[in-house]
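Write out structure tokens for Peptide ABC transporter substrate-binding protein.
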Amino acid sequence: MKKNIKYIVIGMCVALVGAFFYYNKEKSTATDKSIPTIGVLQFVSHPSLDLIYQGFVDELENQGYKDKETIHLNYQNAQADQSKLSSMSQQLISQKPDIVVGIATPAAQSLANQTKDIPIMLGAISDPVGAGLVESREHPGGNITGVSHQAPVEEQIELIQNIMPGIKTLGIIYSSAEDNSIYQIENFKKAAGNKFDIKTYAVPSTNDIAQMSQVMVSEVDAVYVPTDNIIASGYQTLVDTADKANIPIFPSVDSMVADGGLATVGIDQYQLGVKTAQMTIDVLEGRSQPATTPVYTYKEGTLIINEEKAQKLGITIPQELKEEAKK
């Protein structure tokens, strides 16, 4: 009996010693500064932003930067919680990474509030100048640059008119808390001119999307959705409401067409992530500096049409658009 107890004690000691060395090895690896550290702060989870992050990670690996092997990748997601956004950005900056990436405007702004020294890469920001992140797109002037996903509104307006030539009233639903969305709406109105009436519907949070959507679809012929993170988070609610009223939705991004929209001329969200990774690597390897690297802005979008949705809504898509659209 005593021998058994003795062996048990010895075994426990060996296990504790092994765990101690394993923990310290892991800790040492996690803080090893011989390989770069990249911090990533994402504002919220929804298909568009998730695709940006996936494209970012995939391109890093394609160029030899794999998490836990050749880089340390510290990913945080605030899930649209402002208090989490603040604490997560503080945590990321306190660890003194080589570079940080903000996916969506609120995340980039939160990181910018924490540091003027560590390079910050913008992952899909519609209006980096209006958001106070850079001095100009051509000459950022500080520690921030990156990728803009400003929607090609002229092409989107032309698409809406080609599919719905008799449209009279277009509704735009957006979050009143996002400066990014207000900027897009102003651009859209300016580009649209008097081609049709535009009604705007602001929501403070995802909890208000259902009620506001019901009001909106009773007053408009179609709905336009800017690249708005709050609306994207509650997008399915909007789609369900619009479908019941037989009202088509023209979103700004490609993934929203697959998730229930009718059509868009949008930017490929995955490729936004790829481009963000490429610019991040350029800074890491010393080929560029944020202050002198222009914000990359896509000039053209890709035409995407949900033909199944068009059939359900009784909308005929012109043949020339079908032939041009990405399948």
